[in-house]
Design a protein that fits this description.
Elements lengths: L9 E2 L29 E3 L9 E8 L3 E10 L4 E11 L6 H4 L4 H21 L3 E5 L10 H12 L8 H13 L11 E6 L4 E7 L2 E8 L3 H7 L8 H21 L7 E5 L1 H10 L7 H4 L3 E3 H13 L2 H5 L12 H15 L3 E5 L3 H10 L5 E2 L2
Parallel strand pairs: 3-6, 7-10, 10-12
Antiparallel strand pairs: 1-9, 2-5, 3-4, 4-5, 6-13, 7-8, 8-9, 11-12
């Protein structure tokens, strides 16, 4: 979830460097290099009419820039990956302290976006939709980013309303869960670089959502300065996270949720470690159930390790080495505070929701 909006805002009901990337091809499992996403065919309840369309969804977060090209058929209710990629661009580097997007961060992001535009064009996508980063909500020079995106894609990055973003993310994360073994209502927690979004609902309806400013990059830049961080730094981060979760508890009936669904790289990396994987395997991580004790153990392990030790972990994306401790801590605190015995890790998220929206006739720009 990545729209630019105020932290802690309640939404109405109903609705770095060291980049690496690769593609996750049609119906095939994602490789280690593809980072954080599984591929294949997702099914949802069929809609009347419609034909298969090829669409492109782009999500730019504080830490990563992600692309999904997919064939979506509303009539049969299927979404099939053509190409799914992720690169760490760290657009939000330093924003919490300076209030501005760094020139180097803008350059990294637009360079990757140009590569994505070429992929979209080569794939023959009929429409593209980009959701803009949470980092830009704090940036005085966000207009530079918007202008750069428009120059590359021909369309600007969207600032979604809270209702729109909640529904897209919830749809992408929970479509596959309907009728399966995970009981609704679902609380979807998307731990990003600058913020974490929470959405509660029973598909297809969203009942409540809220965004708070606790993300892996923000927690690291604010508090976790040591290598490894000192106990006092970890305690300060926990207190910061706890205050944000007070806001969540006041605005969402978390106790109504029967399943916690965790999204994004911090969650999937912790899941990979808990599963004991030697290398990142999105197919094994997707929909893995990770116990609260396992999350706590891996969080303590990561926070105690220097960055050199984290970098040697086979599942670790190079761009997450310095911030994974902060992201794991957010997940650990969520589960502890709200009493969840396990988290269901998901490789599908707002990208999938955007793709569904394009196939259903949602807002879009022509393919580049």
């Amino acid at each position: 979830m990545r729209s630019a909006r105020e932290g802690g805002q309640e939404f109405a009901a109903g609705a770095g460097p060291n980049a690496a990337s690769a593609a996750s091809r049609r119906r095939g499992p994602a490789s280690r290099a593809s980072g954080q996403r599984a591929s294949g065919t997702t099914k949802r309840s069929a809609r009347e009419g419609g034909q298969e369309v090829r669409v492109a969804a782009i999500d730019c977060g504080t830490n990563s820039l992600r692309l999904l090209v997919a064939d979506v058929n509303p009539a049969t209710g299927t979404l099939t990956d053509v190409d799914r990629r992720m690169e760490i661009v760290r657009l939000g580097q330093g924003v919490d302290a300076t209030g501005r997007l760094a020139p180097a961060a803008l350059a990294r992001t637009l360079r990757v976006l140009r590569a994505y535009a070429g992929i979209v064009a080569a794939a023959g996508a009929s429409a593209v939709r980009m959701v803009a980063t949470s980092a830009t909500r704090d940036a005085a020079n966000a207009a530079d980013f918007v202008a750069g995106v428009r120059g590359v894609l021909g369309v600007g990055p969207e600032v979604l309303s809270g209702d729109e973003e909640a529904l897209l993310s919830f749809t992408g994360a929970t479509t596959e869960l309907v009728g399966g073994g995970a009981a609704p209502p679902y609380l979807v927690a998307d731990i990003g670089g600058g913020s974490t979004e929470f959405v509660l609902g029973d598909p297809p309806a969203v009942s409540a959502a809220v965004s708070v400013d606790i993300g892996c990059v923000r927690m690291t830049e604010r508090h976790l300065h040591g290598d490894p961080p000192a106990p006092a730094e970890v305690a300060a981060a926990r207190a910061d996270i706890g205050a944000a979760l007070d806001v969540v508890a006041a605005k969402i009936a978390v106790g109504d949720a029967r399943t916690l669904v965790g999204l994004a790289g911090s969650v999937t990396t912790v899941a990979a470690l808990a599963l004991g994987l030697a290398a990142y395997d999105a197919g094994l991580i997707h929909h893995a159930r990770i116990g609260a004790g396992q999350v706590h153990e891996q969080t303590a392990r990561l926070l105690a390790q220097p960055q050199a030790g984290r970098a040697r972990l086979g599942v670790m994306h190079p761009g997450r080495v310095d911030v994974i401790g902060g992201g794991a801590l957010v997940l650990d605190e969520i589960m502890t505070r709200f009493g969840f015995a396990e988290v269901l890790a998901s490789e599908h998220d707002i990208l999938d929701g955007i793709a569904w929206s394009l196939a259903a006739g949602g807002p879009a720009g022509a393919g580049p």
